[in-house]
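ok so for the tutorial part 2 we go from a plain amino acid sequence to predicted structure tokens. step 1 is just haveing the sequence, like this:
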Amino acid sequence: MSKASLVVIKSMGIGDLVILTPNIHAISKSINKPVIVLAQKNTHAAEILKHDPHVAEIIDLDKKGIFNIIKKIKPKKFDRSYIFSDSLRLYLASKLSGIKDNYQYAFFSKKGKNFFKTAKNFTEKVLSIKIDSEPKIFINNNDIEKVIKKFDITNETVNIVCGISASGPTKRWDIKNYIALFKKINEKKLCKFFLAAGPKDQTLIDEVLNSSIGKSCVSFSKLSIEETLPIIAACKVCISNDTGFAHISSALGLKCLILFMDSPPIAYGTYSNNISLVLPRNETIESCGHNTRGKDKISFNEVLDKTLNLIN
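step 2 — the prediction. this is what the tokens look like for a chain of 312 residues:
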């Protein structure tokens, strides 16, 4: 029987954390007990993994240096670590913390690699098993029931999570396109749109709320990630830029249409059966990536048609 095991996640994004959850679950199942996860605050791991039976604790991976990491993990007396990174610093922190068995990517090997496939291949090699790459976020059913009542989420409307923001303007479909899309969809089916964006995106949110479709919208901007999870779980469909909310929605079982315009769909859009893709004109899942700058080449009609197909 294994003692405590540490899973280290260096990636900063919410989407990255979500995509790695099948690997966390596989490691936990292999040792027959929950693991402890060391992850950066930006991943919101403490909120997203709060109800996960495969995770015992979250430790913050801050940027204060190797000795601060050692100070946090050495008292736990881990007997093994699984490091989803090619970082020499994290390996040394693990080794100097007295962890005997340390598994990690080859040093300086991750650049240019497919994110989810690299993680999947690593886990499968270490554990000598095959794993399903479909993520799952665990949620408290009582929390879902509460938000259903609070936000009047019923089957009389199509409840849609809308990831209108992104990590940068080149990854963001124009907000006017989203407003036009919401209007068109609402003409076909009565909808309620949940605007998945944060406080920094208030300008985008206000533009939607002040439009003629605004009365059918609910904003997430003043909610924590933890507060949004049961709301998302109560919805059926997600239409989104490539953003953390899209990956959360997929892991909560929603059918998702993700618009890729300046990030690689082969790494962030092919890991789940819940995800359908829209790419810029003349791009493929292999050619579209960072620096594609294709937000003005996303077809409105394609987004509309695929959205209606998901709803139907």
